[in-house]
Amino acid sequence: MSSPHTHDHGHAHDHEHDHDHDHGHHHHDHDHDEAAPFPWRRTGLAALLVLFAAATACLVQVRSGEATVITRFGNPARVLLQPGLAWRLPIPFEAAIPVDLRLRSTSSGLQDVGTRDGLRIIVQAYVAWQVQPDSASVQRFMRAVQNQPDEAARQIRTFVGSALETTASGFDLAELVNTDGSKVRIADFEQRLREQIDKQLLDTYGVRVLQVGVERLTLPSVTLGATVDRMRAERETIATERTAEGKRKAAEIRSAAERDARITLADATVKAADIEAQSRVEAAQIYAKAYAGSPELYNLLRSLDTLGTIVNSGTRLVLRTDAAPFRVLVDGPPQLPAAKAGGQHE
Asked: What pLDDT was estimated at residue 25?
């Protein structure tokens, strides 16, 4: 038989247990209500991240100085040339491949080639090139060298080497190496070389040639000897021509001088003859006056003139002294008439 106290205690315990159970149940329902919104937020944030990643994967940036080729399952689909952002399908549907459009330079290296006159030269040329910025050229470049600039440079080097051989065969050595700068045709050589490779590189690689130049040009020992001989022969020819020209001018000057001398001598002879004739006339007039004034004195002077003409310092003569004109040496000058002497005295 239980006591009322015990029953009440048990009832109170059951009541307390029920109260605790109700309290726990109420607390669990409150936590469930507070945790419910968080999974939805995480899902939304994850979806936004996935959408952002997908959008980023579909964007492609085209840089300045580059073209971007969009390939679809490995095949070129389109070419983007304008710098900026563009859309594409995500990988693996579409991929973006950048193609460098900047200017590049390739050297041919030293090439041993033959000239038109059968001599050998060693020449090195360079080519400045870039991929043509249009869709067809960019795709052509990708197909030809798989978008590898180094491989393109190697193949361009082979093209230039072959073109050098062809171009050099159209020029003589004297047109490439000469002491006379006006005869050197290096600019024509470079232009001819460019014409040889320009169209081929554009059609094959989509590459545009911007400049072609000769970096170095040397001569092998055999060619150098032939060149020296040729230059020596040219110099000797020039020297011979100049010597002949000098002799011709000297002959012209000598001929002109001799002509002038003959003219001057002829003028002088004519003048001398005129002077001599005039002097003879004047001498005859003087003699005539002298004879008219004093015949004896005239005869004496004429005799002395004759002696002066036929006798010099080396002459030895044995002549009669009583014969003219030596009589005057013995007789002395003739005596003037007394009348004339007296008249003169007066």
From this structure: 43
